[in-house]
Amino acid sequence: SYVLTQPPSVSVAPGQTARITCGGNNIGSKSVHWYQQKPGQAPVLVVYDDSDRPSGIPERFSGSNSGNTATLTISRVEAGDEADYYCQVWDSSSDHSWWFGGGTKLTVL
Amino acid sequence: EVQLVESGGGLVQPGGSLRLSCAASGFTFSSYWMHWVRQAPGKGLVWVSRINSDGSSTSYADSVKGRFTISRDNAKNTLYLQMNSLRAEDTAVYYCARSGGLGASDAFDIWGQGTMVTVSS
Fold first, then answer.
1. How far is the C-alpha of A65 from the C-alpha of B63, rounded, in Å?
2. What is the pLDDT of residues A67-96, one digit of tens each?
3. CA-closest candidate to residue A74, choices A39, A29, A107
4. Nearest CB partner across the interface for A48, out of B59, B105, B113
């Protein structure tokens, strides 16, 4: 298995910058994807391949990945960004499986 | 509109079986890998299974291997998950998702709304 470690919660004031980390062994060698999930809704892809954004996702969402940590950065946080965020990778060494982090609850104060 | 719609969830007794379906529309279903992902109540996302575009290759999470079978009917634009020998710990919302919609990326770019499976006596 491949373990992805996220902080359970992150809190930030509106207008500030939120950073959500995702730790994994040599994660910098993998492509990391990030999903946003609001209560009662399906996940939505917000960043893929470490730092790319799907169409329709605001530029406020960005990502980076190096060494043993990937980071999702949300600039100028808005109330509507409050959600659970999950990182994900594909690991070829574990029977070609996809792995999700445990999720981080972003609270906008 | 690109869309995935799951169905087939419900209440089933431990040891029972259930088949989930995922109807795809708005895109060329036969060109994409498809996945099932589940989420137990109050818990995180867990990848369950995937199938390649023509159905010739599949893989499973260890927790469901030997009990669940993923399949697809490209003529009907439908993905399936046959779940046998169900356990209480299989209780979850089951989502179908698409990968391969963003160039060479394996990210899951389209998700269905989910269907709830409850395993209980």
1. 29
2. 999 999 999 999 999 999 999 999 877 666
3. A107
4. B105
Report residue A49's pLDDT band, with 50, 70 and 90 as the boundaries: very high
B108 contact residues in A (CB cutoff 8 A) = 33, 35, 43, 45, 88
Token pair for A74: 């949300």
Residue in chain B lying closest to A32 (CA): B107
> What does the pLDDT look like over B24-39, one tens digit per residue?
999 999 999 999 999 9
Residues of B with CB under 8 A from a CB of A: 35, 37, 44-47, 50, 59, 61-62, 95, 102, 105-109, 111-114
Distance CA B90, CA B12 (A): 11
The gap from C-alpha A65 to its chain's centroid, in whole angstroms, comes to: 11
Shortest CA distance to A42 belongs to which of B30, B69, B22?
B22
3-state SS assignment for residue B108:
strand
Whether residues B50 and A88 touch (CB distance < 8 A) is answered with no
Assign residue B112 a region: left if phi > 0, alpha if psi is -120 to 50, beta otherwise? beta
> Which residue type does B20 have?
L
